[in-house]
């Protein structure tokens, strides 16, 4: 126990080589990412500055009557107010606006008050002073009343009729509106607005012929007395003398309110505009300039941007950074990941190419349009091959990343060219479509054929853009030619830049992987001849990882190619690996456990060296380096522990029997590690029934998982479960039962009889399995 404790303390005190290596890798990783980010931001800032610089010539303003010496084309959509039409429109609206009339309630109230005052005088009179009463009543009514009418009005019945029947009727008619003369309303064909201040409401009256004037209401009153009340002529005359002076206008025109209402309506009226479309020819060379054309030219000149716009580059840079944030998210919980230096550098390089091409087109489109008659300025941006740049990205990045990069390329191109939403849709849809097509291409010939669906998509996007923003039909042939040329330029860019990306940035396309997967490759041919057992093992592992990667959505092609090369390090000492011993004596029997462990550990390092010498893809090199992780070579470790315990030697350090790593950093590396261990250890099964194979696969994968070898590989428990089922299915097919013929039954030896036991074979092939704890083991 004391020895074990000392060993544990010594092990804890001794720095772990893998920890130091991972620390160095983390630092370099951060430094690389920082360098790529700085390069990306510099490119983005430079393009934003280019977007704020206006290099194209300004608008030439010709005066009315002059002859234009050049074509003038609108560089942007613009609305120009047509002042004469606007004034005419305002005049029509002003004249059609109904005037405001105030409805007063005073005349209706005055009827009852004056009538009360009249009858007060009459009640205080006597038959002897009727003449005096007549003059007093005339003064109240401001109109002379006859003596006979005063005598009639003294009757109590007439008084009751006046107060009970006539006054309410007259008040109601007055409250509905009465004008002084109906000729005042004849000029208002659109009606009038009656403003009732007491009711706090405005009413639009269109039935002006139903609004009576004072004379008409007087006649209606006389008809009311004669027909409805059936009064005699004498009584009617007396009542008319009494009420006729009380009929006054209740509607009066309010000029100030009418003008205020007209002003409110006019302020809400939209002016009449000329709608100038981008690319529209305002005046052609040799034409005489009209006043309307001069107005358009002046409006274009006033809206023309300065040589450098301060805020525009800031806006472009800010929006570009926001789009790029999605590309720079960390892998944990993000939709995409761009953690490496070369990713940022490649995107920066392609962004610089696209931005420089967009600015070049923006500079030359106006001079070329002036010199080439059939060339229109609006057609030149269609030539920019944004889809080609996105196609290069599609060869090395995920589809989600391709969509975000396509949006970034399309946005910056439109800003540098001064284009709108229609052109953005043309660029973006074409780029995304090409990314999909390129990702489905399995060979370089397939990439060449991808130009056909790209052309179809570009033409559809162009047709949709033209439907949104119609232009002259004469531009259709030119624009269609540029769309077709853009598709072929995109193909040229994709096929020409992708080899540069593979060489300069160290990327591996699927086409390069397929070339390396060819079994006629010299390295694979040498492996087949020198180490046939390892070659056969690699073929089986390749089939297993391909099926497993497809099951969990990993890169199946990278897994398969990496599996073919993962054990090329065994070419240095092939006879020290049991699959290549061909039934001869195991050479490890005469070696110390530490020496055997060194030989096994060395094959990963030598495999990396051979891969680099033969210029294999960097991803394959890393998987060769990581396919054993930091796993423990348990067989030789346990053997060394037993020997040390029997001799009483110093405790064996477990780190000396572990692979240097690093642990698998990707899902693909983890799949190769699992398949390698499962396939090698499956050779120890004496009776490989489906249930035994499944239990064996589960045991091996669980031991690797418990040892922490998959902690950094991004493989989930769901992935491991699917891989276990896939590996079991493939191994069951390999070890399927055959019919046993009588002649074979007598001579056939037990499977794997050349190995002393299963762990010996697994260890000799490089399999690392975590040992079960024993009483004599040191952990």
Percent in helix? 55-70%
Q: Would you count the extended β strands for me?
A: 8
**pLDDT < 50 stretches:** 1-32, 330-338, 744-779
**Binned strand content:** under 5%
Structural class: mainly alpha
Radius of gyration: 50 Å
In one word, what is the shape?
elongated
Pfam families: 7TM-7TMR_HD, 7TMR-HDED, HD
Protein name: Cyclic nucleotide-binding protein
InterPro entries: HD/PDEase_dom (IPR003607), HD_domain (IPR006674), HDIG_dom (IPR006675), Metal-dep_PHydrolase_7TM_extra (IPR011624), Metal-dep_PHydrolase_7TM_intra (IPR011621), PgpH_phosphodiesterase (IPR052722)
Keywords: Membrane, Transmembrane, Transmembrane helix
Any overview of this molecule?
Residues 1-27, 741-779 are annotated as: Disordered. This is Cyclic nucleotide-binding protein. Residues 534-681 form the HD domain. Helices cover 61% and strands 4% of the residues. The chain is mainly alpha-helical and 779 residues long. It has three domains: 20-55 and 308-501, no CATH class; 100-253, no CATH class; 512-737 and 749-764, Hypothetical protein af1432 (Orthogonal Bundle), CATH 1.10.3210. A four-stranded mixed sheet has the order 5-4-3-6. Strand 4 and strand 5 form a beta hairpin. The protein starts with a helix and ends in a 15-residue tail after the last helix.
